[in-house]
Amino acid sequence: MTTSAGSAASAAPAAGDPAATAERASSPHSGFRLGKSLVVAIDGPSGSGKSSVSREVARRLRAAYLDTGAMYRAVTLHCIATGVDLQDGVAVEAAARGIELFISTSPDRESVTIAGDDVTAAIREPEVSSAVSAVATTMGARAELIRRQRALIAGAGHRIVAEGRDITTVVAPDAEVRILLTASEEARLRRRGDQLGGTQTDAQLKQQVIDRDARDSTVVNFRQAADGVVTLDSSDLDFEQTVAAVLDVVRTIAH
Ligand code: DC
User: Fold this and answer.
1) Alpha helices, DSSP H only, in 83-158?
2) Mean pLDDT, to the nearest integer, of 176-180?
3) pTM here?
């Protein structure tokens, strides 16, 4: 696999990459703590590389994987599609409670459906990215999604890597391993730009990364690690090095 320093998110292996599949099959971590609870909670800001890194860590551990941001995105898409006013907190909370949402917890299969309709790609559209903070800052909607996230963690038999903004502090504060994955602002903007294939202007990138984090951090603190949470700065690490660093923390803490 080719990687370049500081491009953790963009250097993630594609699903089905034969080299990555072979590496996983021989992963020395796949039997780690089998039969015991192993919840790995990972929080971090946009562009920290946490989704691709968390997914790969889950594969190596043969654990489930939960992308909680995808759930906030799904509720946002549902509100847009059904004409719910995103400024109306009561209506947004009702939408979060009523949504028939399915999210795959397999690290090898990214799938999100609403009432049976596949929305896996649609939740990544810019329209959703720029509106999602309205759902993330509606406390009633958060409470409902947190309840569902805890149920998904339990449903995965507590062998799961769950990532988002409040997993280490609110969703799973008792997780065996809790990590805050950070990166410098420069690295995060560069990674998100690479991820979007260089299609965005600097101003658009700033809006999607820095401004969105500023709005979201009014309700959850993902800028500083809470007590007992390990901070991992990936600014100078490539994808493989970041995965290895997370696995090191897992094996050191959850022995
Ligand atoms: O990680 P992401 O960009 O897909 O997250 C989408 C939005 O959801 C983001 O604006 C922050 C919010 N979010 C949150 O508030 N709490 C979480 N646990 C996960 C995501």
Assistant:
1) 89-98, 126-136, 139-155
2) 98
3) 0.89
